[in-house]
Each structure stands twice: as C-alpha cells, then as structure tokens.
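Honest question from a wet-lab person: if I give you the sequences of every part of a complex, can you actually get the arrangement of the whole thing, not just the pieces? Trying it with mine:
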Amino acid sequence: MTQAVRHDSMRARNLGVVLGEVRRSGPITRAALAEITGLTKTTVSKMVGDLIEAGMVAESGALRDGERGRPGTAVALSGRRVAALGLEINVDYLSACVVDLTLAVRLRYTQAVDNRRASPVETLSHLEELAHRAVEEARGEGLSIAGSTLAVPGPVDGGLVHAAPNLGWHDVRVSDLLGFPVELDNEANLAALGELWFGSVPGDFLHVSGEIGVGAGLVVGGTLFRGARGLAGELGHVVVSPDGPACRCGGRGCLEQYAGQDALLRAAGLAGVPELLAHLQAGERGSLEACQRAGQALGVALTSAVHLMDPGTIVLGGVFAPLFPWIRDPAHETMTSRLGVMRRAVPELTVSRLGGDAATLGAAGQVIHRVIANPWSHLATTRP
Amino acid sequence: MTQAVRHDSMRARNLGVVLGEVRRSGPITRAALAEITGLTKTTVSKMVGDLIEAGMVAESGALRDGERGRPGTAVALSGRRVAALGLEINVDYLSACVVDLTLAVRLRYTQAVDNRRASPVETLSHLEELAHRAVEEARGEGLSIAGSTLAVPGPVDGGLVHAAPNLGWHDVRVSDLLGFPVELDNEANLAALGELWFGSVPGDFLHVSGEIGVGAGLVVGGTLFRGARGLAGELGHVVVSPDGPACRCGGRGCLEQYAGQDALLRAAGLAGVPELLAHLQAGERGSLEACQRAGQALGVALTSAVHLMDPGTIVLGGVFAPLFPWIRDPAHETMTSRLGVMRRAVPELTVSRLGGDAATLGAAGQVIHRVIANPWSHLATTRP
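Yes, you can. This is the full assembly:
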C-alpha cells in the first residue's frame, strides 16, 4: 500500500465513523463529535465540511454543549440531496420507492402487472420504466440517487436469480438485462429489513411476507439471519403435509399450497384479494373457512419455524397484513396447542404496518445503510 | 471504578489476549507475543510467568524468531494442570468426560441408566457419583477442574430445565439439586459445539443429535445460532405430518415420532440399538424398512430445516451415527426430490465421528473456551 492509499483508507474509515455518529446522536456539535470519536477538532471540522458539501449533513442551529456550556453549531443528517431507489418484482406487481438519507420515504409507486404472463426481459423492461419515472421525479425534488436494490421473489446469487418458481424464472441474470446497476436480494430478506428500519417491531422477530409465494426473514439482535449461503427463510416451502399438493418448487404439501395468495383465493373461489376482503367483511362462509384453513397451515409451518429458529415475535406482512383479523386466531391456536409444553410462551403474532411495501422499503434502506457506513465511496463517485 | 479495579480489569483483558494468542499461534516466543499483541515485553513476560505458574502455559523449547533471527524460548498451551468436566444426562444414559486446556480428552465415562424410571433427584444423585469419580481420577493425573457444564435433553433457562418431555422433567431447578456448581445447556447445542471443536466438519453445519429425542444445533461461520431465547434447533419437534401420532411435547406428527430412537425400535419390533444394528447387518427386512421410513421422515424435517436455516452441511450424530449407512440414502433422496428446484445443491449429509459423545465433549469444551477467554478469573479462583 502506498502512503497516499493508506491515508485515503484512514480518511474513509474516519468519515464513516463521523457520519455514523451524526446519525446515532441526532443534532450534535463538531466539538462533541471530536470528543466521542477521539479525532482532532480539525479533522472533524474538515470531514463535516466535506459531508455538508456532499449534502449528507446540514447545520441545524445552535446547540449548548452539555458540561462546557459553550454553544456550538449543531449538524444533523440531511435528507435534501442523497437518496436511494428501492425496487421490487413480485408475481403480480412491480414497485419502486425513493428514500432519503434520513430514511424518510419520498415517493412510492406500485403497479399491478401479472409477471407470470411476461418473459423476464419484458418484466425487467417494465421495471426499468418504473425506475426511470421514480428517478426523474426524485431529481425534480433535488435528490440524487446513490444506488438501488431490487427485491425478487426467490433465492439470489450475485446478479443472478437462480430460481423464482412463482415467476417461472430460472437462472435469470438480471444484471445483464437491466440498463442500470442494481443490487439483487431476496424479497423476504428485504421485507424483514424493511420491518426493522421502517416498521414498529423491535430487533427480534420473524417477518413473514405473504404474497403468491410466502417468504420469511429472521432478525435476531437487530441483524438479519441469512444462513450459510444466504438462502435462509424460505417459509413458503416448509412442509405442512408431506403428501399434500405438488408445489412449483418440486416438493409436496409446502405452506404456499395452503396459505399462499393463489391457494387462498382458489380455496375461497375468488379472483382477487379486494374481493376476498369484501367477502370476509360480509361474513361469507366459504371465505371465512378458506382463511381458517390457511391460518391453520400457517400455524403448522410456524410451529416448525419456532422450534428451529426461536424468533422473538412473528410479524405477518404482505397480503397477511389485511387478512390478519381472519388468519391470526387459527394460526395462533394451532401454534399454542403444539408449542405449549416445550415453551413457557408462544411467540406473539403481530401485524406489519408496512403490508406489501416492506420489501421495497428494505431495498432502499439497504442502500442508505451502506452509504452511511461508507460515505467516502459515495463522495468519490459524486465528485467531479 | 477505583484505580486498582481499573488496573485489574486491564490486566484481565490483556491476560486473555496473551493466552488467546498462545492458543492460536501454537509455540511462540515472548518477543513475538509482544509484537503481535502490542503489549510491552515486560508486560508479556510478567503475564507469561503468571500463566506458567498457573499451569496454563509451559515452555516448549527454543524457537528462532522469523525476521530477527534471534532464538527465544517458546511457550505453548499446557494440558498438564487445568481441565474441565463435561456432563450429560440423556434419557437412557449418563456420561462424563474430562478435557484438558489443549482440548485433549483425558477420560470418558458412559453409564446406561433408564432415567425415565427415576426421579430428577435420583438421576442427579447418580450423575453426582459419576462426576465425583471423574474428578477423583482427573486429580490422580494432576489435573484441577476449572468448571463443569451439564448437557440436558431440553430447553434450559439459567439453572432451570423448563421441559425435558422425554425425561418427564418439568421445571427442574438442577442448580438447587446438585452438590457442585454447574452450567446448564441444551444437549443439541452442546453436541453442535462438540462437533465444531472436536469433530472433523468445518464451521458451517447443522449437527443432528439422534437420541430418544432428536435435537439439532446450527453453526454458522463458527458460531452456534441460539435464536432469540436460546431455544433454537428443536428439530425433533418439526412437524413431519400434522395429523400424525401424538408427541410428548403436546404436538402431533413430530419428527421424534418417526425417527427418534424409541420410535425406530418400536417400528423394528426390537428392544435396543445393538440388536437393531445386528438385524440391519443381517439384512433383516423389518429393520431395513423401519430405517427407510425413519430416514424419509428425517428427510422431510430436514427439508423444512434447510429451507428455513440454510445450513452448509448436515452432520448426523448420536444414534444416527451407527445407523448412518441405513438412513442416509432415504433421507438424502427425500431432500433431493423436494429441494432440487430451489437450490443448486442439496446440503451434503455426513456422519459425526463423535457419535453419542458430542454433547459431553462440547460441555467440557465450553468451559475450556471460557477459561482461555478469561484466564484472569480462573487465576483468581485458584490462587491461595
């Protein structure tokens, strides 16, 4: 390493330390930053200057410094310039959102499309249009997009979607088919991170994403559990009944075949979720029974998940959020009757406030968290 | 904090750093230790002196120091004085082992006892006898026991076994019933740690302990995954068939009801594992079919576990180790047919070399790892 490279890497690390502390502490003076980080006041002032110039931090008025009593000008994270694009391809919709550096949601689009009837190229071209629209509108508000993450309903390996059986995708190299750079991640993982950063549940939970597929993301101590190859959390393919109906994954009797959106609508004899909700509210028996059975199957799969993963609480999101009043009780009763002896308490079942937006928000949030952890590489790309 | 306390806590930390480095590096000179740890040579020499006096480290001959070329006397971990006691209560046996500071196994006892026919007090009094025998024999070899951990077949909360349904234990406060201090942990967790420290599988695996109960411990990146409340890994109660036979846990159709040792022997119409092995080796049909069905049930439960936890490899231990030649294929075929589409590769099924000893070894290993991480508190208790 040359002297210059070493110096840059030290500056990069310190810049991350300073910005991280600004995020944690809220409005804070340069003097307090120097004291907390152990850096000199001169170094901190220079770095804060760079961060202000990059629009990542802004002065936020005078603040009296605790013990010393000398007022200083405080700085805080600024949401006025840097933002991130979150994208999602799911089986029956596309969505996009823009989140700024303070994690404020600046815009959100969802578009219903049946992506099963489209080729990967067509779907990705629709997504590209949606992304461009979002980026243009964000630019109109003075925002500059630092990066984007795309949530897909299947396991991901670098830029490749290995298998998204509900989309009919196999080995789709998304990075080659999109006209802009994007990070890929699994929808259920990003939904769990969305719940962690934008939701109301503290740091230990299993977030269940009910869509046409059913996925889950486990957060323990504020960290997403990904397993050895990043493929953990496929709750939708947990075996509910070993000789049950065949699933697109190649297995039989997977949870998706009982509680996935399509399976549920089929059991209720209905075409869409709004119709199902209307029937449930009207107390229509077939729909109530379909939800009862889906909730029981969910309870069986969650019993296995609780025994294996020991989550703090369980948060139901996606389509399970609007359906919560009808599936909560059968799922909870099934879990209680099966888990009661082994555990003092069965994990609580709660509902996500984010519903179907969790994955798109998590996707954007992931970019913001990376920028805050490593502002130097962001500065390097935005400088002339 | 007083000056003296602060100084002690700094010494304690540094002592752990020095001993940890000795363990990692093998024979190493004091000069090299000073260079790696950043401590002064005087400090390192004083600490090495204390560790030699405590019998935790010993001089191991001259070693030439890489660049400098000046030979120095190397020190290495010593197994001659400090040791740990590992204990296990399982449904049909008790066991004890003594492991020294270098993780060499110094002695091992297993005693077949049907603990279902005994009260917790009786079982713990048997265990106490076994422990005393082990400690006496270790003393005869000049070893001093730094601590002990006890593996139990059920979830643990501090000194309390909340529920070990296969033993018939509910809320047994072991710490009050044993005449010596012991740490409690779940058998499946300790077996996974035993595999990590004493086995042959690298750092990403799910270790399955087949006993009368079936448990599992997941190791990711060399760390045991415990879940939010320390209750993760209860593979034996993963639902194989939701309407299957009732289980002692309160559920139905749990894996234990198909592949636990009792269920397997019942299906084969035999009384013990040695008999079952003899029948299998003789190609007796009923026993082969019983193993086939147990292997398939294990494959269904592992399919759910792989989808949820994404382990690197799967290591079968306990009674599944001697039965491996007969249950591996049905389990692997079941997993392959169910997991194939979603995953490029199904996790490999391997056999533990430790068999039924994994938990007892993990229990002793846990004490040794704590002593090495914090030798100061060990010195404090052994000093006059």
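Two things worth pointing out. The longest helix of chain A spans residues 285-309. The first strand of chain A starts at residue 28 and ends at 29.
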